[in-house]
Amino acid sequence: MKNKVSILYIFLDEEDSKSFIEYLEKTNTLCINIKPKQTKDIEIVDKINITEKKDNTSYVLLNTFIQSLKEYTNNSVLISGYYHYSQVGKGIIQFLPCYLSNYNKGCLMIGRLAASFDCDDDETDKWVKEIFKWLKKNSKKVYRISTNHNICSDFAEPRTIALESASAFYNGTNGHYFTLVKDIFCIAK
Question: Which of 174, 59, 44 has the alpha carbon at shortest distance from 111?
Fold first, then answer.
């Protein structure tokens, strides 16, 4: 069996996450914190906190019309006393959130949405495209910038977007930039 993989890199802040989660609710999609736990309790998220990355929190977006919450929970695996949940498959998009950079103070580190599913799964393919289309429609493209020379690239970063609120704040003013890795800065336009 072959898998299809779709990836979108994203910058969003807490304000953007509210509108994103509101949109997800309209598509029968839950945002779930999948940090390993000692119980099978699922934590459905209604707000994503953008903080310094300390606990390696990651999320999945689960379309409950494609895979029920019960089915998803039943597929968890118990390893060393902690329940682990799938981050790929039918009706699932992995979501690694943005976080405040700990080495470039005042900057926001890139996040990622990624889906990996069977090529014959038309339902998941259609849903992933719908989610990515909404995000792209409500965002700006991201460009690298030289902070020393105040020069902006003519070419947008591939598959990389920034939602409106994050774009407005991390615009290069007062040292607030998007960052891909240490010392690579970007702005949206």
Answer: 59
